[in-house]
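Thread: sanity check for a docking pose with adenosine-5'-triphosphate

Original post by kr_44:
Hi all, I'm comparing my docking run against an independent structure prediction. Below are the sequence and the ligand SMILES. Could someone generate the full complex and paste the C-alpha coordinates? I mainly care about where the ligand ends up relative to the chain.
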Amino acid sequence: MSAPFFLGRVIDTIYTSGADTETMTASLSSLCLMLTGVFLCGAAANAARVYLMEASGQQIVRNLRAMVFSAVLRQEVAFFDKNRTGELINRLSSDTSVVGHSITDNLSDGLRAVAQAVGGVSMMFYVSPSLASFILMIVPPITVLAIIYGRYLRSISKRTQDALAQATQLAEERIGNIRTVRAFGKELSEVDKYTQKTDYVLSLARKEAVIRSGFFGVTGLSGNLMILSVLYKGGLLTASQHMTVGELSSFLMYTFWVGISIAGLSSFYSELMKGFGAGTRLWELLDRKPEFPLNEGRILSPDQLKGQLEFSDVSFSYPTRKDAHIFQNLNLMVPAGTIMAVVGPSGSGKSSLVSLLLRLYDPDAGTISIDGHDIRDLNPYWLRNHIGTVNQEPILFSCSIKENIAYGAINPDAVTIQDIHSAARVANAYDFIQSFPKGFDTVVGEKGNPKILLLDEATSALDAENEFLVQEALERLMQGRTVMIIAHRLSTIKNADSVAVLDQRRVAECGQPTELLGNRQGLFRKLMEKQAFLQEEQQRALL
Ligand SMILES: Nc1ncnc2c1ncn2[C@@H]1O[C@H](COP(=O)(O)OP(=O)(O)OP(=O)(O)O)[C@@H](O)[C@H]1O
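Reply from moderator J.T.:
Ran it for you. Here is the predicted complex with adenosine-5'-triphosphate included:
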Protein backbone atom coordinates (compact mmCIF):
# COMPACT_ATOMS: atom_id res chain seq x y z
CA MET A 1 0.00 0.00 0.00
CA SER A 2 2.76 2.44 0.90
CA ALA A 3 5.06 1.31 -1.96
CA PRO A 4 3.88 3.97 -4.44
CA PHE A 5 4.26 6.56 -1.70
CA PHE A 6 7.91 5.59 -1.15
CA LEU A 7 8.42 5.38 -4.87
CA GLY A 8 7.15 8.97 -5.08
CA ARG A 9 9.61 9.98 -2.36
CA VAL A 10 12.46 8.25 -4.23
CA ILE A 11 11.56 10.09 -7.40
CA ASP A 12 11.57 13.38 -5.46
CA THR A 13 14.93 12.49 -3.93
CA ILE A 14 16.34 11.77 -7.39
CA TYR A 15 15.11 15.14 -8.57
CA THR A 16 16.42 17.17 -5.65
CA SER A 17 19.55 15.34 -4.37
CA GLY A 18 21.65 15.43 -7.53
CA ALA A 19 23.27 12.18 -6.37
CA ASP A 20 25.49 10.17 -8.73
CA THR A 21 24.11 7.34 -10.86
CA GLU A 22 25.78 4.57 -8.79
CA THR A 23 24.14 5.69 -5.52
CA MET A 24 20.79 5.98 -7.27
CA THR A 25 21.09 2.49 -8.81
CA ALA A 26 22.01 1.01 -5.40
CA SER A 27 19.05 2.61 -3.61
CA LEU A 28 16.69 1.63 -6.43
CA SER A 29 17.81 -2.03 -6.30
CA SER A 30 17.36 -2.22 -2.52
CA LEU A 31 13.88 -0.74 -3.03
CA CYS A 32 13.16 -3.41 -5.67
CA LEU A 33 14.37 -6.12 -3.26
CA MET A 34 12.05 -4.82 -0.57
CA LEU A 35 9.14 -4.73 -3.01
CA THR A 36 9.88 -8.32 -4.14
CA GLY A 37 9.70 -9.45 -0.49
CA VAL A 38 6.40 -7.63 -0.04
CA PHE A 39 4.96 -9.19 -3.23
CA LEU A 40 6.07 -12.69 -2.21
CA CYS A 41 4.38 -12.33 1.19
CA GLY A 42 1.31 -10.97 -0.59
CA ALA A 43 1.20 -13.99 -2.98
CA ALA A 44 1.50 -16.45 -0.07
CA ALA A 45 -1.24 -14.65 1.86
CA ASN A 46 -3.43 -14.70 -1.25
CA ALA A 47 -2.95 -18.46 -1.73
CA ALA A 48 -3.91 -19.05 1.91
CA ARG A 49 -6.96 -16.82 1.50
CA VAL A 50 -8.10 -18.71 -1.63
CA TYR A 51 -7.74 -22.05 0.17
CA LEU A 52 -9.63 -20.85 3.25
CA MET A 53 -12.39 -19.33 1.16
CA GLU A 54 -12.71 -22.44 -1.00
CA ALA A 55 -12.95 -24.72 2.05
CA SER A 56 -15.33 -22.50 4.01
CA GLY A 57 -17.38 -21.87 0.86
CA GLN A 58 -18.02 -25.59 0.46
CA GLN A 59 -18.92 -25.80 4.13
CA ILE A 60 -21.37 -22.89 3.85
CA VAL A 61 -23.09 -24.41 0.79
CA ARG A 62 -23.34 -27.75 2.60
CA ASN A 63 -24.85 -26.12 5.71
CA LEU A 64 -27.24 -24.06 3.60
CA ARG A 65 -28.37 -27.19 1.71
CA ALA A 66 -28.91 -29.12 4.95
CA MET A 67 -30.93 -26.21 6.41
CA VAL A 68 -33.09 -25.82 3.30
CA PHE A 69 -33.65 -29.59 3.03
CA SER A 70 -34.67 -29.77 6.66
CA ALA A 71 -37.00 -26.76 6.24
CA VAL A 72 -38.59 -28.43 3.18
CA LEU A 73 -39.13 -31.79 4.88
CA ARG A 74 -40.82 -30.11 7.85
CA GLN A 75 -43.56 -28.60 5.66
CA GLU A 76 -47.10 -30.00 5.60
CA VAL A 77 -48.20 -32.22 2.69
CA ALA A 78 -50.30 -29.43 1.11
CA PHE A 79 -47.05 -27.49 0.61
CA PHE A 80 -45.86 -30.28 -1.69
CA ASP A 81 -49.10 -30.09 -3.69
CA LYS A 82 -48.27 -26.45 -4.39
CA ASN A 83 -44.47 -26.70 -4.77
CA ARG A 84 -43.37 -29.44 -7.10
CA THR A 85 -40.40 -31.75 -6.66
CA GLY A 86 -38.29 -30.43 -9.55
CA GLU A 87 -38.65 -26.87 -8.35
CA LEU A 88 -37.56 -27.75 -4.82
CA ILE A 89 -34.63 -29.79 -6.13
CA ASN A 90 -33.52 -26.76 -8.13
CA ARG A 91 -33.65 -24.59 -5.01
CA LEU A 92 -31.50 -27.13 -3.21
CA SER A 93 -28.92 -27.54 -5.93
CA SER A 94 -28.70 -24.40 -8.05
CA ASP A 95 -29.92 -21.58 -5.75
CA THR A 96 -27.70 -22.72 -2.89
CA SER A 97 -24.64 -22.78 -5.20
CA VAL A 98 -25.29 -19.24 -6.44
CA VAL A 99 -25.81 -17.95 -2.90
CA GLY A 100 -22.80 -19.94 -1.65
CA HIS A 101 -20.55 -18.46 -4.32
CA SER A 102 -21.78 -14.93 -3.71
CA ILE A 103 -21.01 -15.06 -0.01
CA THR A 104 -17.69 -16.91 -0.06
CA ASP A 105 -15.22 -16.65 -3.01
CA ASN A 106 -16.90 -13.47 -4.08
CA LEU A 107 -17.05 -12.02 -0.59
CA SER A 108 -13.34 -12.62 -0.11
CA ASP A 109 -12.50 -10.93 -3.44
CA GLY A 110 -14.92 -8.15 -2.53
CA LEU A 111 -13.41 -7.56 0.90
CA ARG A 112 -9.97 -7.41 -0.66
CA ALA A 113 -11.23 -4.88 -3.22
CA VAL A 114 -12.86 -2.82 -0.43
CA ALA A 115 -9.63 -2.86 1.62
CA GLN A 116 -7.63 -1.84 -1.45
CA ALA A 117 -10.06 0.94 -2.33
CA VAL A 118 -10.13 2.30 1.25
CA GLY A 119 -6.34 2.14 1.49
CA GLY A 120 -5.92 3.75 -1.94
CA VAL A 121 -8.37 6.57 -1.20
CA SER A 122 -6.79 7.22 2.24
CA MET A 123 -3.37 7.48 0.63
CA MET A 124 -4.76 9.82 -2.04
CA PHE A 125 -6.06 12.07 0.76
CA TYR A 126 -2.74 11.78 2.57
CA VAL A 127 -0.78 12.81 -0.52
CA SER A 128 -3.12 15.58 -1.64
CA PRO A 129 -6.46 16.22 0.08
CA SER A 130 -7.56 18.85 -2.40
CA LEU A 131 -6.86 16.68 -5.47
CA ALA A 132 -8.47 13.64 -3.77
CA SER A 133 -11.68 15.63 -2.95
CA PHE A 134 -11.86 16.81 -6.54
CA ILE A 135 -11.37 13.33 -8.00
CA LEU A 136 -13.88 11.68 -5.67
CA MET A 137 -16.72 13.93 -6.84
CA ILE A 138 -17.34 11.09 -9.24
CA VAL A 139 -18.41 8.77 -6.39
CA PRO A 140 -22.04 10.00 -5.72
CA PRO A 141 -23.32 9.57 -9.30
CA ILE A 142 -21.64 6.13 -9.53
CA THR A 143 -23.29 5.11 -6.21
CA VAL A 144 -26.79 6.06 -7.47
CA LEU A 145 -26.17 4.12 -10.67
CA ALA A 146 -24.92 1.10 -8.68
CA ILE A 147 -28.07 1.06 -6.53
CA ILE A 148 -30.37 1.06 -9.58
CA TYR A 149 -28.22 -1.56 -11.30
CA GLY A 150 -28.10 -3.75 -8.15
CA ARG A 151 -31.89 -3.76 -7.82
CA TYR A 152 -32.34 -4.74 -11.42
CA LEU A 153 -29.73 -7.48 -11.18
CA ARG A 154 -31.39 -8.88 -8.06
CA SER A 155 -34.74 -9.11 -9.74
CA ILE A 156 -33.28 -10.64 -12.90
CA SER A 157 -31.38 -13.23 -10.85
CA LYS A 158 -34.60 -14.14 -9.00
CA ARG A 159 -36.44 -14.50 -12.29
CA THR A 160 -33.60 -16.60 -13.73
CA GLN A 161 -33.64 -18.98 -10.77
CA ASP A 162 -37.45 -19.22 -10.96
CA ALA A 163 -37.29 -19.99 -14.67
CA LEU A 164 -34.55 -22.57 -14.08
CA ALA A 165 -36.68 -24.15 -11.35
CA GLN A 166 -39.59 -24.45 -13.79
CA ALA A 167 -37.34 -26.04 -16.40
CA THR A 168 -36.00 -28.53 -13.86
CA GLN A 169 -39.58 -29.21 -12.73
CA LEU A 170 -40.60 -30.06 -16.28
CA ALA A 171 -37.54 -32.26 -16.83
CA GLU A 172 -38.03 -34.07 -13.52
CA GLU A 173 -41.70 -34.85 -14.26
CA ARG A 174 -41.09 -36.02 -17.81
CA ILE A 175 -38.05 -38.16 -16.94
CA GLY A 176 -39.90 -39.57 -13.93
CA ASN A 177 -42.83 -40.52 -16.18
CA ILE A 178 -40.84 -41.59 -19.20
CA ARG A 179 -43.07 -44.63 -19.78
CA THR A 180 -46.14 -42.41 -20.21
CA VAL A 181 -44.19 -39.94 -22.38
CA ARG A 182 -42.97 -42.82 -24.56
CA ALA A 183 -46.38 -44.54 -24.69
CA PHE A 184 -47.87 -41.36 -26.19
CA GLY A 185 -44.82 -40.63 -28.37
CA LYS A 186 -44.43 -37.19 -26.77
CA GLU A 187 -40.60 -37.05 -26.64
CA LEU A 188 -40.17 -34.37 -29.31
CA SER A 189 -42.95 -32.10 -28.06
CA GLU A 190 -41.57 -32.39 -24.51
CA VAL A 191 -38.11 -31.43 -25.78
CA ASP A 192 -39.71 -28.40 -27.44
CA LYS A 193 -41.40 -27.40 -24.16
CA TYR A 194 -38.13 -27.80 -22.26
CA THR A 195 -36.26 -25.78 -24.90
CA GLN A 196 -38.84 -23.00 -24.58
CA LYS A 197 -38.21 -22.82 -20.85
CA THR A 198 -34.44 -22.82 -21.26
CA ASP A 199 -34.80 -20.19 -24.04
CA TYR A 200 -36.42 -17.94 -21.47
CA VAL A 201 -33.49 -18.58 -19.09
CA LEU A 202 -31.15 -17.70 -21.96
CA SER A 203 -33.02 -14.45 -22.74
CA LEU A 204 -32.72 -13.44 -19.07
CA ALA A 205 -29.00 -14.30 -19.10
CA ARG A 206 -28.57 -12.09 -22.18
CA LYS A 207 -30.40 -9.22 -20.51
CA GLU A 208 -28.15 -9.66 -17.50
CA ALA A 209 -25.06 -9.67 -19.72
CA VAL A 210 -26.17 -6.42 -21.41
CA ILE A 211 -26.78 -4.54 -18.19
CA ARG A 212 -23.68 -6.01 -16.56
CA SER A 213 -21.44 -4.94 -19.45
CA GLY A 214 -23.12 -1.50 -19.41
CA PHE A 215 -22.34 -1.09 -15.71
CA PHE A 216 -18.78 -2.31 -16.16
CA GLY A 217 -18.39 0.08 -19.10
CA VAL A 218 -19.53 3.02 -16.96
CA THR A 219 -17.28 2.11 -14.01
CA GLY A 220 -14.32 1.59 -16.40
CA LEU A 221 -15.02 4.97 -17.99
CA SER A 222 -15.19 6.65 -14.60
CA GLY A 223 -11.80 5.09 -13.72
CA ASN A 224 -10.35 6.61 -16.90
CA LEU A 225 -12.00 9.95 -16.09
CA MET A 226 -10.33 9.88 -12.68
CA ILE A 227 -6.92 9.35 -14.26
CA LEU A 228 -7.49 12.13 -16.81
CA SER A 229 -8.62 14.46 -14.02
CA VAL A 230 -5.49 13.63 -12.00
CA LEU A 231 -3.31 14.38 -15.00
CA TYR A 232 -5.10 17.65 -15.72
CA LYS A 233 -5.72 19.02 -12.21
CA GLY A 234 -2.55 17.43 -10.77
CA GLY A 235 -0.52 18.94 -13.65
CA LEU A 236 -1.90 22.39 -12.74
CA LEU A 237 -1.10 21.87 -9.03
CA THR A 238 2.44 20.76 -9.90
CA ALA A 239 2.95 23.74 -12.22
CA SER A 240 1.81 26.10 -9.45
CA GLN A 241 4.20 24.24 -7.10
CA HIS A 242 1.38 23.08 -4.77
CA MET A 243 2.47 19.53 -5.47
CA THR A 244 5.80 17.92 -6.28
CA VAL A 245 6.33 15.67 -9.32
CA GLY A 246 6.90 12.73 -6.94
CA GLU A 247 3.58 13.42 -5.15
CA LEU A 248 1.78 13.60 -8.48
CA SER A 249 3.40 10.28 -9.56
CA SER A 250 2.40 8.47 -6.37
CA PHE A 251 -1.10 10.03 -6.54
CA LEU A 252 -1.42 8.73 -10.07
CA MET A 253 -0.39 5.25 -8.94
CA TYR A 254 -2.99 5.35 -6.17
CA THR A 255 -5.60 6.42 -8.72
CA PHE A 256 -4.75 3.37 -10.85
CA TRP A 257 -4.93 1.28 -7.73
CA VAL A 258 -8.36 2.65 -6.78
CA GLY A 259 -9.51 2.18 -10.40
CA ILE A 260 -8.57 -1.50 -10.31
CA SER A 261 -10.28 -1.86 -6.91
CA ILE A 262 -13.44 -0.29 -8.37
CA ALA A 263 -13.45 -2.90 -11.14
CA GLY A 264 -13.11 -5.63 -8.46
CA LEU A 265 -15.83 -3.96 -6.40
CA SER A 266 -18.22 -3.84 -9.38
CA SER A 267 -17.75 -7.53 -9.95
CA PHE A 268 -18.23 -8.26 -6.24
CA TYR A 269 -21.31 -6.10 -6.08
CA SER A 270 -22.81 -7.80 -9.15
CA GLU A 271 -22.29 -11.28 -7.71
CA LEU A 272 -23.62 -10.21 -4.32
CA MET A 273 -26.83 -8.85 -5.86
CA LYS A 274 -27.16 -12.05 -7.90
CA GLY A 275 -26.78 -14.03 -4.69
CA PHE A 276 -29.46 -11.90 -2.97
CA GLY A 277 -31.80 -12.54 -5.90
CA ALA A 278 -31.22 -16.30 -5.86
CA GLY A 279 -31.45 -16.29 -2.07
CA THR A 280 -34.93 -14.70 -1.93
CA ARG A 281 -36.71 -18.04 -2.40
CA LEU A 282 -34.29 -19.81 -0.06
CA TRP A 283 -34.97 -17.32 2.75
CA GLU A 284 -38.69 -17.74 2.09
CA LEU A 285 -38.30 -21.50 2.46
CA LEU A 286 -36.16 -21.20 5.57
CA ASP A 287 -38.58 -18.74 7.19
CA ARG A 288 -41.71 -20.70 6.32
CA LYS A 289 -43.46 -22.11 9.37
CA PRO A 290 -45.20 -25.43 8.59
CA GLU A 291 -48.99 -25.25 9.04
CA PHE A 292 -48.98 -28.31 11.30
CA PRO A 293 -46.41 -29.04 13.93
CA LEU A 294 -44.26 -32.06 13.16
CA ASN A 295 -43.56 -33.39 16.60
CA GLU A 296 -45.68 -31.49 19.15
CA GLY A 297 -48.92 -32.36 20.91
CA ARG A 298 -50.41 -35.08 23.11
CA ILE A 299 -49.12 -38.60 23.16
CA LEU A 300 -51.50 -41.33 24.36
CA SER A 301 -50.15 -44.09 26.57
CA PRO A 302 -50.45 -47.64 25.12
CA ASP A 303 -53.42 -48.50 27.41
CA GLN A 304 -55.23 -45.28 26.39
CA LEU A 305 -55.08 -46.26 22.75
CA LYS A 306 -57.96 -48.57 21.88
CA GLY A 307 -58.37 -47.55 18.26
CA GLN A 308 -61.91 -46.13 17.89
CA LEU A 309 -62.05 -43.82 14.88
CA GLU A 310 -64.67 -41.14 14.36
CA PHE A 311 -65.36 -38.51 11.70
CA SER A 312 -67.89 -35.91 12.90
CA ASP A 313 -69.43 -33.44 10.45
CA VAL A 314 -66.23 -33.35 8.41
CA SER A 315 -66.05 -31.00 5.44
CA PHE A 316 -62.94 -30.97 3.34
CA SER A 317 -61.46 -29.70 0.08
CA TYR A 318 -57.80 -29.87 -0.99
CA PRO A 319 -55.89 -26.61 -0.45
CA THR A 320 -54.95 -26.46 -4.15
CA ARG A 321 -58.59 -26.97 -5.26
CA LYS A 322 -60.68 -25.15 -2.70
CA ASP A 323 -63.72 -25.06 -4.97
CA ALA A 324 -63.93 -28.88 -5.32
CA HIS A 325 -65.55 -30.16 -2.13
CA ILE A 326 -64.47 -33.72 -1.35
CA PHE A 327 -66.57 -34.14 1.84
CA GLN A 328 -69.47 -32.17 3.25
CA ASN A 329 -70.70 -32.96 6.78
CA LEU A 330 -69.39 -36.51 6.61
CA ASN A 331 -69.99 -38.72 9.65
CA LEU A 332 -68.43 -42.13 10.20
CA MET A 333 -67.58 -44.26 13.22
CA VAL A 334 -65.32 -47.30 13.34
CA PRO A 335 -65.52 -49.04 16.76
CA ALA A 336 -62.20 -50.19 18.22
CA GLY A 337 -61.03 -53.61 17.06
CA THR A 338 -63.42 -53.84 14.09
CA ILE A 339 -62.88 -53.91 10.35
CA MET A 340 -64.57 -51.27 8.24
CA ALA A 341 -64.47 -51.65 4.46
CA VAL A 342 -64.74 -48.34 2.60
CA VAL A 343 -66.17 -48.58 -0.89
CA GLY A 344 -67.37 -46.03 -3.40
CA PRO A 345 -67.05 -44.93 -6.99
CA SER A 346 -63.66 -43.75 -8.22
CA GLY A 347 -62.96 -40.21 -6.99
CA SER A 348 -65.53 -40.44 -4.16
CA GLY A 349 -62.78 -39.68 -1.62
CA LYS A 350 -61.72 -43.07 -0.22
CA SER A 351 -58.01 -42.23 -0.23
CA SER A 352 -58.77 -38.72 1.04
CA LEU A 353 -60.38 -40.30 4.13
CA VAL A 354 -57.07 -42.07 4.83
CA SER A 355 -55.05 -38.86 4.26
CA LEU A 356 -57.28 -37.03 6.78
CA LEU A 357 -56.83 -39.79 9.37
CA LEU A 358 -53.06 -39.59 8.97
CA ARG A 359 -53.40 -35.83 9.36
CA LEU A 360 -51.72 -35.14 6.07
CA TYR A 361 -54.43 -32.48 5.71
CA ASP A 362 -56.78 -30.86 8.22
CA PRO A 363 -60.53 -30.76 7.50
CA ASP A 364 -62.07 -27.34 6.80
CA ALA A 365 -64.79 -28.09 9.38
CA GLY A 366 -65.71 -30.87 11.80
CA THR A 367 -63.44 -33.16 13.79
CA ILE A 368 -61.65 -36.45 13.36
CA SER A 369 -60.96 -38.28 16.60
CA ILE A 370 -59.23 -41.37 17.88
CA ASP A 371 -60.73 -42.72 21.13
CA GLY A 372 -62.47 -39.38 21.58
CA HIS A 373 -59.26 -37.30 21.16
CA ASP A 374 -59.32 -34.78 18.32
CA ILE A 375 -56.32 -35.72 16.16
CA ARG A 376 -55.39 -32.02 15.96
CA ASP A 377 -54.47 -32.24 19.66
CA LEU A 378 -52.32 -35.33 19.16
CA ASN A 379 -48.67 -35.37 18.22
CA PRO A 380 -48.70 -35.99 14.43
CA TYR A 381 -45.40 -37.85 14.57
CA TRP A 382 -46.74 -40.19 17.25
CA LEU A 383 -50.06 -40.51 15.40
CA ARG A 384 -48.47 -41.64 12.13
CA ASN A 385 -46.21 -44.03 13.95
CA HIS A 386 -49.23 -45.69 15.55
CA ILE A 387 -51.25 -46.01 12.39
CA GLY A 388 -50.05 -48.68 10.02
CA THR A 389 -50.62 -47.96 6.36
CA VAL A 390 -50.30 -50.32 3.46
CA ASN A 391 -50.71 -48.67 0.09
CA GLN A 392 -51.48 -50.16 -3.29
CA GLU A 393 -47.98 -49.26 -4.35
CA PRO A 394 -45.73 -49.47 -1.33
CA ILE A 395 -43.00 -46.86 -1.45
CA LEU A 396 -39.65 -48.55 -1.21
CA PHE A 397 -36.44 -46.82 -0.37
CA SER A 398 -33.23 -47.67 -2.12
CA CYS A 399 -31.86 -49.73 0.75
CA SER A 400 -32.04 -53.38 1.74
CA ILE A 401 -35.28 -55.28 2.53
CA LYS A 402 -34.04 -55.39 6.09
CA GLU A 403 -33.76 -51.59 6.30
CA ASN A 404 -37.03 -51.08 4.44
CA ILE A 405 -38.87 -53.27 6.96
CA ALA A 406 -37.15 -51.56 9.91
CA TYR A 407 -37.91 -48.10 8.45
CA GLY A 408 -41.55 -48.26 9.58
CA ALA A 409 -40.67 -49.14 13.18
CA ILE A 410 -40.77 -46.45 15.90
CA ASN A 411 -37.12 -47.08 16.70
CA PRO A 412 -35.52 -48.73 13.66
CA ASP A 413 -32.21 -49.19 15.51
CA ALA A 414 -33.86 -51.41 18.12
CA VAL A 415 -35.30 -53.78 15.51
CA THR A 416 -33.60 -57.17 15.56
CA ILE A 417 -33.19 -59.50 12.63
CA GLN A 418 -35.71 -61.83 14.33
CA ASP A 419 -38.29 -58.98 14.37
CA ILE A 420 -37.63 -58.44 10.70
CA HIS A 421 -38.06 -62.13 9.92
CA SER A 422 -41.32 -62.37 11.87
CA ALA A 423 -42.68 -59.21 10.18
CA ALA A 424 -41.88 -60.87 6.88
CA ARG A 425 -43.63 -64.10 7.99
CA VAL A 426 -46.79 -62.13 8.93
CA ALA A 427 -46.79 -60.61 5.47
CA ASN A 428 -46.32 -64.08 3.91
CA ALA A 429 -43.18 -62.69 2.34
CA TYR A 430 -40.54 -64.65 4.25
CA ASP A 431 -40.12 -67.50 1.74
CA PHE A 432 -40.39 -65.10 -1.14
CA ILE A 433 -37.63 -62.88 0.27
CA GLN A 434 -35.40 -65.80 1.20
CA SER A 435 -35.59 -67.02 -2.40
CA PHE A 436 -33.56 -63.97 -3.52
CA PRO A 437 -29.82 -64.61 -3.81
CA LYS A 438 -29.16 -61.89 -1.22
CA GLY A 439 -32.23 -62.67 0.91
CA PHE A 440 -33.06 -59.86 3.34
CA ASP A 441 -30.17 -57.80 2.01
CA THR A 442 -32.05 -57.25 -1.28
CA VAL A 443 -35.08 -54.75 -1.41
CA VAL A 444 -38.93 -54.18 -0.30
CA GLY A 445 -40.84 -52.94 2.82
CA GLU A 446 -43.76 -53.03 5.30
CA LYS A 447 -44.77 -51.11 8.47
CA GLY A 448 -44.48 -51.68 12.27
CA ASN A 449 -46.99 -53.19 14.73
CA PRO A 450 -49.75 -50.60 15.11
CA LYS A 451 -53.20 -50.63 16.75
CA ILE A 452 -54.87 -48.97 13.76
CA LEU A 453 -54.39 -50.16 10.21
CA LEU A 454 -55.28 -48.22 7.08
CA LEU A 455 -55.14 -50.42 4.03
CA ASP A 456 -55.55 -49.58 0.39
CA GLU A 457 -56.28 -52.84 -1.29
CA ALA A 458 -54.62 -53.45 -4.63
CA THR A 459 -57.04 -53.31 -7.55
CA SER A 460 -54.88 -55.33 -9.91
CA ALA A 461 -55.93 -58.92 -10.48
CA LEU A 462 -53.83 -61.54 -8.74
CA ASP A 463 -53.63 -65.19 -9.64
CA ALA A 464 -55.49 -67.59 -7.34
CA GLU A 465 -52.44 -68.58 -5.30
CA ASN A 466 -51.29 -65.02 -4.69
CA GLU A 467 -54.84 -63.86 -3.97
CA PHE A 468 -55.02 -66.53 -1.29
CA LEU A 469 -51.63 -65.56 0.17
CA VAL A 470 -52.52 -61.84 0.21
CA GLN A 471 -55.89 -62.57 1.80
CA GLU A 472 -54.28 -64.77 4.42
CA ALA A 473 -51.60 -62.17 5.15
CA LEU A 474 -54.24 -59.43 5.45
CA GLU A 475 -56.41 -61.48 7.79
CA ARG A 476 -53.44 -62.18 10.03
CA LEU A 477 -52.49 -58.52 9.91
CA MET A 478 -56.02 -57.34 10.76
CA GLN A 479 -56.49 -59.51 13.86
CA GLY A 480 -57.08 -57.50 17.06
CA ARG A 481 -56.77 -54.12 15.32
CA THR A 482 -59.07 -51.37 14.14
CA VAL A 483 -58.92 -51.55 10.37
CA MET A 484 -60.16 -49.20 7.73
CA ILE A 485 -59.68 -50.80 4.35
CA ILE A 486 -60.33 -49.29 0.95
CA ALA A 487 -61.73 -52.51 -0.40
CA HIS A 488 -61.99 -53.71 -3.96
CA ARG A 489 -62.36 -57.48 -3.51
CA LEU A 490 -65.74 -58.98 -2.71
CA SER A 491 -64.09 -61.44 -0.30
CA THR A 492 -62.54 -58.57 1.75
CA ILE A 493 -65.82 -56.68 1.84
CA LYS A 494 -67.78 -59.75 2.97
CA ASN A 495 -65.29 -60.41 5.77
CA ALA A 496 -65.49 -56.84 7.11
CA ASP A 497 -67.59 -56.05 10.20
CA SER A 498 -69.14 -53.09 8.45
CA VAL A 499 -69.07 -51.27 5.15
CA ALA A 500 -69.18 -47.52 4.48
CA VAL A 501 -70.23 -46.46 1.00
CA LEU A 502 -68.92 -43.05 -0.01
CA ASP A 503 -70.86 -41.02 -2.52
CA GLN A 504 -71.73 -37.37 -3.12
CA ARG A 505 -69.23 -36.04 -0.54
CA ARG A 506 -70.63 -38.06 2.36
CA VAL A 507 -71.21 -41.59 3.70
CA ALA A 508 -74.23 -42.63 1.67
CA GLU A 509 -74.71 -46.02 3.36
CA CYS A 510 -73.16 -47.70 6.36
CA GLY A 511 -73.86 -51.09 7.96
CA GLN A 512 -73.10 -54.80 7.91
CA PRO A 513 -72.32 -56.13 4.43
CA THR A 514 -75.23 -58.61 4.41
CA GLU A 515 -77.62 -55.96 5.68
CA LEU A 516 -76.60 -53.53 2.93
CA LEU A 517 -76.74 -56.22 0.26
CA GLY A 518 -80.33 -56.83 1.31
CA ASN A 519 -81.35 -53.36 0.15
CA ARG A 520 -82.03 -53.87 -3.56
CA GLN A 521 -82.20 -50.14 -4.30
CA GLY A 522 -79.06 -49.36 -2.28
CA LEU A 523 -75.86 -48.00 -3.70
CA PHE A 524 -73.81 -50.81 -2.14
CA ARG A 525 -75.92 -53.46 -3.82
CA LYS A 526 -75.54 -51.66 -7.16
CA LEU A 527 -71.77 -51.37 -6.74
CA MET A 528 -71.49 -55.03 -5.86
CA GLU A 529 -73.67 -56.10 -8.78
CA LYS A 530 -71.42 -54.09 -11.06
CA GLN A 531 -68.35 -55.71 -9.54
CA ALA A 532 -69.79 -59.23 -9.79
CA PHE A 533 -70.77 -58.48 -13.39
CA LEU A 534 -67.25 -57.24 -14.15
CA GLN A 535 -65.72 -60.33 -12.61
CA GLU A 536 -68.00 -62.52 -14.75
CA GLU A 537 -66.96 -60.55 -17.82
CA GLN A 538 -63.32 -61.04 -16.95
CA GLN A 539 -63.81 -64.73 -16.40
CA ARG A 540 -65.61 -65.08 -19.72
CA ALA A 541 -62.79 -63.17 -21.46
CA LEU A 542 -60.26 -65.52 -19.95
CA LEU A 543 -62.04 -68.64 -21.18
N1 LIG B 1 -53.51 -33.86 -3.48
C1 LIG B 1 -54.64 -33.57 -4.12
N2 LIG B 1 -54.88 -32.30 -4.50
C2 LIG B 1 -56.02 -31.97 -5.14
N3 LIG B 1 -57.00 -32.85 -5.42
C3 LIG B 1 -56.83 -34.14 -5.07
C4 LIG B 1 -55.64 -34.56 -4.41
N4 LIG B 1 -55.75 -35.89 -4.17
C5 LIG B 1 -56.94 -36.29 -4.68
N5 LIG B 1 -57.60 -35.23 -5.21
C6 LIG B 1 -58.94 -35.25 -5.81
O1 LIG B 1 -59.87 -35.57 -4.78
C7 LIG B 1 -60.91 -36.42 -5.29
C8 LIG B 1 -61.00 -37.67 -4.42
O2 LIG B 1 -59.83 -38.41 -4.61
P1 LIG B 1 -59.51 -39.76 -3.85
O3 LIG B 1 -58.21 -40.25 -4.36
O4 LIG B 1 -59.67 -39.56 -2.39
O5 LIG B 1 -60.71 -40.69 -4.38
P2 LIG B 1 -60.80 -42.27 -4.36
O6 LIG B 1 -62.21 -42.57 -4.04
O7 LIG B 1 -59.75 -42.85 -3.49
O8 LIG B 1 -60.50 -42.59 -5.90
P3 LIG B 1 -59.89 -43.94 -6.55
O9 LIG B 1 -60.83 -45.05 -6.24
O10 LIG B 1 -59.89 -43.61 -8.02
O11 LIG B 1 -58.53 -44.10 -5.99
C9 LIG B 1 -60.55 -36.71 -6.74
O12 LIG B 1 -61.31 -35.84 -7.54
C10 LIG B 1 -59.09 -36.36 -6.85
O13 LIG B 1 -58.79 -35.86 -8.13
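DSSP finds 19 helices and ten strands in the chain. Hope that helps with the comparison, let us know if your pose agrees.
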